[in-house]
Amino acid sequence: MPKRGKKEEAAKDGEGVPPKVPKASPAPQYEDPPLREETPGGRRWTLKVTSWNVDGLRAWVKKGGAQWVQEEAPDVLCLQETKCAGPSVPPEVRGLPGLPHQFWASAEGKPGYSGVGLLAKTEPLKVTYGIGAPEHDSEGRVITAEFPSLFVVSAYVPNAGRGLVRLEPRLRWDSAFLEFLRGLDAQKPVLLCGDLNVAHQEIDLCHPGSNRASAGFTPQEREGFSRLLGAGFVDSFRRLYPEARGAYTFWTYLGGARARNVGWRLDYFVLSRRLADDALCDSKIRSAVPGSDHCPITAYLAM
Amino acid sequence: MPKRGKKEEAAKDGEGVPPKVPKASPAPQYEDPPLREETPGGRRWTLKVTSWNVDGLRAWVKKGGAQWVQEEAPDVLCLQETKCAGPSVPPEVRGLPGLPHQFWASAEGKPGYSGVGLLAKTEPLKVTYGIGAPEHDSEGRVITAEFPSLFVVSAYVPNAGRGLVRLEPRLRWDSAFLEFLRGLDAQKPVLLCGDLNVAHQEIDLCHPGSNRASAGFTPQEREGFSRLLGAGFVDSFRRLYPEARGAYTFWTYLGGARARNVGWRLDYFVLSRRLADDALCDSKIRSAVPGSDHCPITAYLAM
DNA sequence: CGTGCAATG
DNA sequence: CATTGCACG
Lengths: 303, 303
What we know:
homodimer; about 300 residues; alpha+beta; Deoxyribonuclease I, Chain A; 7 helices; DNA-binding
């Protein structure tokens, strides 16, 4: 989605090769504060959920992603952009200790495109696929697991595409997805995890000014996210850290963006308000973890 | 072209993982004899020509192919399967010391397919592309350089394809190519270099028995090569080493074939008979040189 | 098994 | 600058 040219970064260094990591970084590296172990009400966390856009599950495994997950040891793991059908899931993932219940969705007729996974320590009561909208349910973008006290949704929201060629279907998705989440929320609290493919506010990306017409930061996509919040959902990270700058979860591979923290916050834990109020302990961004062009995020809830 | 199954190699080792390099190699490693510096008539070599199917020029450069060529220091270098249009030739090749005159041909409308090159120390009198047969001249398979005393032809003969799906056009090629070479030979002696995509006799591949219906060893392709020899051309290597076994220039990447010398002799220097009689000093196979699924070959002529 | 493409991000 | 699948070998 960030298809910015080099102009923003091209320093006027004369003839020399521009340094890959300029001394004065345009955005500060995000400093991750210590874990908040409890809710404001003093309840200690009992549920740990990690979400990660892996940008190709098989390559991610080779880069040690599964190893990191094992150390992180979440109770639920939500993966996006697996680019991998269920039968091709590598054994290193199938055998992840503590996550025996695994569910996979992939795009029909488009091998290597999209795809999400949801892995859990305990068996869900029920698992569903998609959002109940035929237009959007053939690309392996959503898995919903119902647990006794909440729904967990692993979602990979469609990218609006270069030149915004797929902005219209994306906006239709936003509406349909919101209705889907409302439906869940009417039953039980919802924990939505994943790559929502939008940076909500200017603070959520490094270069807001030059990205007003870029996929992931158009007014329409941002409004879609605002409507989600208006419908009784909470952006967990931003609630806890309203002023945090440079907190990104995605950096394009192009031009060494990650080393300079030229990034976007595209990955979220979005919670039903009552869950955010009662259960949210912390929402972490694991900026330093390699393995993908996105980093993992982890939420801690007191259930 | 070798699409043999694993059955030939699958040893009955019981449960164990079969070793990649069995102790008893089915074909001996080829032992390259010392260079013959002179013709039988006692004339010392003055022209050194190297030919190599590089299987992708850009990858080959990264694997040090250009470096090896620099050390080999031929007067003429013929490359096949460059998979690279002229403008994409890497600078390491463009700047090869001693080979300033460079000519490139590539497949029209099929980027990354086929392609040949011819590089020379001295400027050719004339360079032509193709073989004068419209059916065959759009794939970048032949470059002919005319020098004062001979033609040098860099050729990548079309593969008959898996299941011999392209055997018919290949046989038409063989006829047209022979006519083309006859026409050259009527003017000046010819040195044909390249991947002729045929193993002529049983001695020219490791597993003749199981490859009678494989591209590169069908009776029709072998007869095509026999016709070439019958038209007054000489297989330089086989003339000099009529009994040499295990002398191959290609090994499929599959199954560790190269380590076991399960190969084919597909790359040749084919000379006009008068050139073979008067000028041929040696014809070498550089079996150990890495960088492609083919190895380079080098001819030494006393011009 | 490995090349270089194409579509996608 | 990466991923995947693909055609080709």
